[in-house]
Design brief:
- With about 450 residues, this protein is α+β, with helices and mostly antiparallel strands.
- About 40% of the residues lie in helices and about 10% in strands.
- It is built from 18 helices and 15 strands.
- Strands 1-11-10-7 form a four-stranded mixed beta sheet, with helices on both faces.
- Helix 3 runs antiparallel to helix 10, helix 4 (about 85-95) packs parallel to helix 10 and helix 11 runs parallel beside helix 17 (about 425-440).
- The longest helix is centred in the C-terminal third of the chain and has 19 residues, at about 295-315.
- The radius of gyration is 23 Å and the shape is globular.
- It binds pyridoxal-5'-phosphate.
- Pyridoxal-5'-phosphate binds next to helix 5 and helix 6.
Length: about 450
């Protein structure tokens, strides 16, 4: 699957306004990369960014008002209030999905999905190694095996071309993660799912409002899972949602999320299956309903800033911004991710580069470490419960199947910025790019 540079139409659709958009398209980035010899802040120079990036989460008077409403009405739980239900209806409508189940967090949305699809002991689930640990933990909660498929380092997403080779007759689900709010290669993944009759659970926990060929992600698989944890582009402190177009999955997930009580919460103490309490509170539902009203505007600002930043960073040798696949019609930019090639910076190690960037006033993160190599995975899979289900030989063989060398390399090269850094004025992006240019120009001195 091809990756893309942003085309003229997408660029304008992304909201870069009229004359400015045309000027940029005609002339390219306002400022071509010209190495600035000015002294890096880490070596005593004046730091480039002296301001502050926008804070997160954001609140306004309306949030206080709805919280007080819930507080005073005493309907704090979905069993005796209607905010959660209203949020579910609105989120399903906004995302283009038939059903939405609101839950306590994104982990619960994934957990409920696996349960609804009947994934359990003895099953295998395809997962990426470049993700937050919750994607894997839910598979382990089911005593299933997370089978890691290597990462496409150009896009930071699961390498869809490698999925089929990792599947066996025990594969019961594929969990692509739209990491950073960029979109996994859904054409290839959905094609595999259809041909092999293995359902897709989209982990869209970082990808609110991202789109694949004009459809919102999370509405493409059998289920789609979202997180509203405090750092996310829609935040309720904690919170999550599962989308599905299938009534049967909605029903099973609903029953599971409320301790196995019958569909639509009929009263009394009868239970139709096992379950857990994964319910969202009315406080979360009310806050999220309000937060939803601002996502579109914020998403547009992130897109405009990220696209400008990419044009600047692509001009710097050794900086490789994550590229969207050609089918991506909208990127959520929960993170801004790029690969740092130390060789192009005269061998300046990533940690020193990051330190220099921080000194310029630009916070940054090295991102994930390889999940498939986490010591806890061995501890879990060689535990009594797992050995009872699989036996030692199967677990030994499993560990021979999950090497992801491309991902290992990516984890040594990645650098991230968080979504809130993309919400300020264009000048913030200029500072980020100026800082990286300065570090590149002074890499030799920074090595010392
Ligand atoms: C990719 C991914 N999956 C799952 C989760 C789990 O979401 P939550 O923290 O809301 O349980 C997260 C949250 O950070 C995530 O980033």
């Amino acid at each position: 699957m091809k990756t893309k540079r942003m085309g003229r139409r997408a660029f304008i659709r992304a909201g870069v306004g009229g004359a400015a958009a045309l000027a940029m398209l005609q002339t390219g980035p306002k400022r071509a990369y010209s190495a600035s010899p000015s002294k890096p802040a880490l070596l005593g120079g004046e730091k480039i960014f002296k301001g502050t990036f926008p804070g997160w989460p954001r609140t306004d008077a309306r949030h206080e008002q709805v919280w007080l409403e819930v507080l005073r009405a005493h309907g704090w739980c979905r069993l005796n209030g209607d905010y959660v239900k209203r949020f579910e209806d609105e989120y399903a409508r906004t995302m283009g999905s038939r059903h939405c189940l609101a839950v306590a967090n994104g982990t619960s949305a994934l957990y409920a999905s696996l349960n609804a699809l009947g994934v359990g002991p003895g099953d295998e689930v395809i997962v990426p190694p470049y993700t937050f640990v919750a994607t894997i933990n839910v598979v382990l909660l089911q005593y299933a095996l997370p089978v890691f498929v290597d990462t496409d380092t150009n896009t930071f997403q699961i390498d869809a071309a490698k999925i089929e080779a990792a599947m066996t007759d025990r594969t019961r689900a594929i969990i692509p993660v739209h990491i950073g709010g960029y979109v996994a290669d859904m054409d290839t993944i959905l094609d595999i799912s259809k041909r092999r009759e293995v359902p897709v659970i989209e982990d869209a926990c970082q990808a609110h409002f991202a789109e694949w060929r004009g459809k919102r992600v999370g509405s493409l698989g059998e289920t789609g899972c979202f997180s509203f944890q405090v750092t996310k582009n829609i935040s309720g402190g904690e919170g999550g949602a599962m989308l599905t177009n299938r009534e049967d999955l909605m029903e099973r997930a609903f029953v599971f999320h409320t301790n196995g009580r019958p569909w639509h919460l009929t009263s009394g103490f009868s239970y139709v299956q096992n379950g857990a309490n994964l319910r969202m509170t009315e406080f979360q539902g009310a806050l999220l309903l309000e937060q939803l009203t601002r996502v579109e505007a914020e998403s547009q600002i992130r897109e405009q800033n990220a696209e400008y930043l990419t044009r600047r960073l692509e001009a710097i040798p050794g900086i490789h911004p994550a590229r969207p696949y050609e089918g991506t019609t909208r990127n959520a930019y929960h993170l801004y991710m790029f690969r740092y090639d130390a060789e192009a910076f005269g061998g300046l190690p990533r940690e020193r580069f990051r330190q220099a960037l921080s000194a310029e006033g630009i916070p940054n993160s090295p991102g994930y470490t390889p999940l498939n190599k986490m010591p806890f995975l061995k501890e879990t899979l060689y535990s009594r419960g797992y050995l009872n289900v699989y036996g030692k030989d199967t677990i030994d063989e499993y560990f021979d199947r999950i090497d992801c060398p491309e991902n290992d390399r990516l984890c040594t090269e990645a650098v991230w910025f968080t979504q809130n850094m993309l919400l300020g004025p264009r000048s913030d992006m200029e500072s980020i790019a100026d800082a990286i240019e300065r570090i590149h120009a002074n890499a030799k001195d920074l090595m010392a």
